[in-house]
């Protein structure tokens, strides 16, 4: 069965998955790179990086994924909709290598990139978007790639089977919060946590089977 998965979503102790304001120069706003320093230090992110526990967990991001869904604010900074040359942050060969569905209220033609990534732009409910992504995923799993708003909406709609969060020991104070509207989430999920020597805590939420 095709699962819906979130991986490597990094949140501060106070629950923010990005800082503010987001811009071309500061995609994570005042958070800078602090939410992802744990990942930048791994071999998963770059040659020569660490090959320890964070690396092993981070790599699960890639396994068995046939399509990604992301939000408009992950795809680009404010104003990208009006830039005809904007093709995402990731250069000519983005790291997705699958059909990638960008949720946006502004229509946009698909963009075919090198390496198997095609960006499709979709104005749809989470359930409708997931149906389209599943159809494109060829029986593999669908990753919800972020940001916080889109992950929160998919979790709230009961569509996420596996959620991997990385709690980073920083306090941001402001930004986009993950947890708003998700009270009692723990009822629906089996939750495990493990802290690693880098100082982050990996949390996995696996949806309990329904009776
Ligand atoms: N912490 C992490 O691990 C992590 C991971 C990924 C991304 N990020 C960061 O998170 C930030 C982005 O997160 P975010 O919460 O601001 O925004 P987001 O979730 O990326 O995107 C939200 C936007 O997507 C569009 N959208 C969402 N649902 C839609 C729907 N059902 N139909 C049509 N359009 C829809 C809307 O944009 P429009 O109305 O403008 O079209 C909405 O404002 C970025 O800074 C990114 O770098 C962090």
Automatic annotation (TrEMBL):
Q: Which Gene3D superfamilies match?
A: Dihydrofolate Reductase, subunit A
Q: Which Pfam families match?
A: RibD_C
So where does this one cross the membrane? none
Molecular functions per Gene Ontology: 5-amino-6-(5-phosphoribosylamino)uracil reductase activity
A GO BP entry is: riboflavin biosynthetic process
Q: From the UniProt annotation, give the residues forming the signal peptide.
A: none
- Which residues does the UniProt record annotate as the domain Bacterial bifunctional deaminase-reductase C-terminal? 8-186
InterPro entries, from UniProt? DHFR-like_dom_sf, RibDG_C, Riboflavin_Biosynth_HTPR
In which domain of life is the source organism classified?
Answer: Bacteria
Q: Specify the protein name.
A: Dihydrofolate reductase
Look up and give the organism this protein is from.
Answer: Knoellia koreensis
């Amino acid at each position: 069965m095709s699962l819906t998965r979130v991986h490597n979503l990094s949140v501060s102790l106070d629950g923010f998955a990005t800082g503010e304001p987001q811009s071309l120069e500061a995609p994570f706003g005042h958070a800078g790179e602090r939410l992802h320093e744990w990942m930048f230090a791994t071999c998963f992110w770059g040659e020569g990086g660490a090959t320890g526990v964070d690396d092993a967990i981070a790599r699960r991001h890639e396994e068995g994924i046939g399509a990604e869904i992301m939000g408009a604010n992950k795809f680009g900074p404010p104003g990208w909709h009006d830039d005809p040359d904007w093709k995402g942050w990731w250069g000519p060969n983005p790291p997705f290598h699958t059909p990638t569905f960008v949720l946006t209220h502004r229509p946009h033609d698909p963009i075919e990139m090198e390496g198997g990534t095609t960006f499709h732009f979709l104005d749809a409910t989470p359930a409708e978007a997931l149906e389209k992504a599943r159809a494109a995923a060829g029986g593999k799993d669908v990753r919800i790639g972020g940001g916080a708003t889109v992950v929160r909406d998919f979790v709230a709609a009961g569509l996420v089977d596996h959620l991997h969060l990385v709690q980073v020991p920083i306090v941001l104070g402001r930004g986009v919060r993950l947890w708003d509207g998700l009270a009692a989430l723990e009822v629906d999920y089996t939750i495990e946590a493990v802290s690693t020597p880098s100082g982050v805590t990996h949390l996995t939420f696996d949806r309990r089977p329904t009776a």
